[in-house]
Amino acid sequence: MNNKSLTKKKLLLILTTITTVIYILWRIFFTIPFERGIVSLIAGIALVLAETIGAIEAFSHYKNLSSIKYPKLPKIEEDLYPEVDVFVATHSESVELLYKTINGCINMDYPDKSKVHVYICDDSNRSEMRKLAETLKVGYLGLSDNKDAKAGNINNAIKNTSSPLIVTFDADMIPRRDFLMETVPYFFLKDSNGEYEKVGFIQTPQSFYNPDLFQFNLYLENNIPNEQDYFFKEVNIGRNRTNTPIYAGSNTVISRRALEDVGGITTGTITEDFATGIKIQAKGYKCYSIPKVLANGLAPNDFKSLIKQRQRWGRGCVQTIRNKDFLFSDLSLRGKLSYVTCLLYWWTFLRRFIYILSPILFIVFGIVVVECSLKEILFIWLPSYILYNMSLRILSSNIRNQKWSNIVDTIIFPYMIIPIFLESIGIRLNKFAVTPKNSLIKRNSEIKYAIPHFILIITSLIALVFCFKDVVINKNVGSIVLLYWLVLNLYFLIMAVFFMIGRINFRDEERFYSNINVKILLDENEIEGIISDISENGMAIILDKPEYIPYDKEIYIKIEYIGESIIVKGNVLHVDKVNNKWKYGIKISFDSNSYDAVDDDIRMKYYHLVYDREHSLPKNLTSTTIKELYNNIIRRNKNNKLSKRKLPRLEINKIIKDLNTNEDIEVINYNYEYILIKNTGKEKNELLINLGEIINDETSNNIIMKCEIFKKNKLGILYKTYPGTICSER
Predict the structure, then answer these.
(1) What tens digit of pLDDT does each residue of 343-369 get?
(2) Among 224, 206, 215, residue whose Cα is nearest residue 620
(3) Is the pLDDT reported for residue 406 higher than 90?
(4) In this structure, are residues 97 and 509 in contact, taking their beta carbons and an 8 Å threshold?
(5) SS3 at position 249
(6) CB 509 within 8 Å of CB 642
(7) Average of per-residue pLDDT across 505-515
(8) How far apart are CA 243 and CA 282, in angstroms?
């Protein structure tokens, strides 16, 4: 960014700060309805508090985002790379899930792979996990009667290992091959005096290869980034400025010495990672968050799991910040203030409720919440509002905007307010809940959770009618601001209802867009194509021209990828014509259906090929209000039928000769198994056709195809061709 752009950004932030301070002071001293009764007074103070807390949080946010910095990865000699222990924590997750994660771990690059020690840390002490560890030749650290949840599991692993660096992964987080090479060198950072920095941990983003609920349920998986991207790629990196990046518990490399200095992973809290990170920073360790995605996992795929996760995060944050250990810790004042803004964030949901309720109270129930004139709104509120949104748009690099923050907050606020309040007054939640990690084929409908939103929609509509009448009949121009406020809130509430309606998930695994050269091995032929998308159980192969690939015959697919050659087996599931090319959907199969097969080298290589890549989901926000409404009204009501065609259907529309009678016949289409002939009234039980005339292929000119009548339909007469059995050379 050039100096001119930096100057403009600083000027904008200064103006935003000035107008916000003026606005908040005006609100506190001149607009609270002291003489309108106790209900108005409470509502007015609540709105002022919400706006004041929002302004404080926004100011901290601006400061962090205006100076996003992280260190450059140092180059170090190969012999300096230390021993590393990789902990994959599991409680109740499936063998299938752990198989993919461990497979990713053992395929991570490192100068000396004997220095990388991978462990399954299983606090359920399951025999199937022990067997998986033996099969994949990794360590197993089982634990029975664990009373400290994930913290106890990791602490047990720390006691039984010794490497100076520790990597922590959740059970679903599959690392990419360059994970260690892109993180370990940070522990050799040097300060301005040339001395090694005391690095505590390196936090990489928690990224997800499946669309999160906000992307999926709202039909916007091609238009909005994952909801967590904003935090991990911007907010947490901005926290480097105050040495307060949050330790998220997974996708992290952490110093053993740092952990030992704070007594291991913190117990007695439901967010052990958050509390541990604070303790490490309080001990003087430098900690960094970096934006490069190096591992991908599964986002929660039902609303109940999502809410449990967010409630745990929120309550854990409140628990930690309320604790006297935080207040009297050696964390710097800047660091403590930075973490206090984390606490303020969890009151966003109460603020959202206040913002939705305030215009309804005034218009429907006559409860005054703000004492002001139209002139004051135009000259004090409007500049502050415009500059706030401009600043957020400039600083957020197109990952998040104010509208999407409001949509997300509106969706979940009814289920966050009470848990955060209870935790704040000391009513604690001490039970750790594991977020379910699976992908189910079902309609993810949670409409019962939309009851609060429906109530607010009805009252907002009533308020909208009253407000509209006030503008039109009473010519009250000031009500236009209230009208705008109501319309915005109504839009957010409608999006929340769309979210709760859910969406059918047809897939039991995620697919990734790709561009990999491939060869289909069929008998003695090699058919070249490109894999356009790939998943752990299948792939889509694009061919330049249609090919006859029997769907009832097993085929072999040869894949060349980063120096590896893999041959997998499969069957054609469906064929579609896409942009004048042919897309073949292939289902992959393996010799063994068990994940503990010792000789399952092909599955391991194939899974690594599938998951060692960036996810295919958006990295930037391209959604618009029109697109959001279109997707949720039009796309939601489309009947999305999956293709059942197993052979390519060629549109021929050509006159050829029936070699039996030498008469002309008009071929409408052909799919290597059936041929459709135009019905001219001369029905024939049998035809003899030159295949080369149909598909314009010189190599097929000598193949004569016998066709027997199958049935008639409104388009013509359908003949069965028996490809490969009744076709013969002249």
Answers:
(1) 999 999 999 999 999 999 999 999 999
(2) 224
(3) yes
(4) no
(5) coil
(6) no
(7) 83
(8) 10
Q: In which order are the strands placed within the sheet that holds 295-297?
A: 174-175, 295-297, 207-208
Query: Token match 């001490």: residue?
Result: 430
CB under 8 Å to 467, separation ≥6 — which residues? 359, 363, 479, 482, 483, 486
Sign of CA dihedral 606, 608, 609, 614: positive
* Residue 140, φ and ψ in degrees, nearest 5: -130, 125
Mean pLDDT of 161-186: 98
Cβ 256 vs Cβ 165: under 8 Å: yes
Q: At what angle do helices 303-322 and 402-412 cross, to 10 degrees?
A: 100
Q: Residue 725: its pLDDT value, please?
A: 44
Sign of the dihedral defined by the CA atoms of residues 486, 489, 494, 497, in that order: negative
When pLDDT is cut at 50, 70 and 90, the band that residue 3 belongs to is low
Q: CA–CA distance from 440 to each of 164, 208, 506, 580 (Å)?
A: 40, 16, 8, 33
Beta bridge partners of 117: 85
| One-letter amino acid for residue 715 of the chain | L
Rounded Cα distance, 179 and 196, in Å:
22
Name the nearest CA neighbour of 356 among 346, 344, 369.
369
- How far out from the chain centre does Cα 131 lie? 31
| Minimum mean pLDDT range among 234-248, 486-500, 716-730 | 716-730
Length in residues, the chain: 730
- The one-character DSSP state at 435 is P
Count CB neighbours of 504 within 10 A.
Answer: 10
Q: What is the DSSP string of 185-211?
A: GGGG-B-TTSPBP-EEEEEPP-EESS-
Residues 444 and 302: beta-carbon distance below 8 Å: yes
Cα–Cα distance for residue pair 76/297, rounded to 1 Å? 29
Identity at 303, one-letter amino acid code: F
**556: β partners:** 521, 569
Q: Reduced to 3 states, what is the DSSP secondary structure of residue 619?
A: coil
Alpha-carbon distance of 586 to 14, in angstroms, equals 57
**pTM of this structure:** 0.90
Separation CA 720–CA 686 (nearest Å): 10
SS3 content of the chain, % helix, strand, coil (to 5): 45, 20, 35
Burial of 175 (0-12, 13-18, 19+ CB in 10 A): buried
Distance CA 299, CA 725 (A): 49
Looking at residues 489-502, what average pLDDT do you find? 97
Euclidean distance between CA atoms 206 and 252, whole angstroms: 9
> Mean pLDDT lowest for which of 418-432, 493-507, 514-528?
418-432
Which residue, among 290, 251, 258, 296, has the nearest Cα to 277 in the 3D structure? Answer: 258
